[in-house]
Design brief:
This protein is an alpha/beta fold. Helix content is 17%, strand content 39%.
Length: 127
């Protein structure tokens, strides 16, 4: 029997300040807003991948254990684009030999950690 299809993917995060979150993802990161549901907003990250934020009073003040990774061949361009928008990075782009990746880290207004990453291993998409 064939595995059921998956057409798209959305990852949702809770936030306390949807306006600040919307500003960051729409004006700074420049993700296209796909759907505004009032207290939730959904952004296109890639062709079939989406990121959603919902305003909730019980959203974590200091989220931990969550890492949103943007995979791109243009880590340096992303880094410069965001630095030009006054985004402060935890780390500048660097090679991580343990995972054979080139990456950098920042946080969004909610404290969610974002990684911008390039796989250096040519086998990454071969499987």
């Amino acid at each position: 029997m064939r595995h059921p299809s998956i057409d798209e993917q959305i990852t949702f995060f809770y936030c306390r300040d949807l306006a600040a979150t919307a500003h960051f993802y729409e004006q700074v990161v420049k993700l296209p807003l796909v759907l505004d549901q009032g207290d939730c907003r959904i952004y296109r990250v890639s062709r079939d991948g989406y990121l959603g934020f919902c305003q909730r009073s019980n959203a974590p003040e200091q989220p931990a254990g969550v890492l949103f990774t943007i995979v791109t061949q243009e880590v340096d361009r992303w880094y410069q684009h965001l630095v030009d928008q006054d985004v402060v990075f935890e780390t500048p782009p660097t090679v991580n030999p343990a995972y054979n990746i080139y990456h950098c880290f920042l946080q969004d207004p909610n404290g969610y950690r974002i990684e911008i990453q390039q796989f250096l291993d040519p086998e990454w998409k071969a499987a």
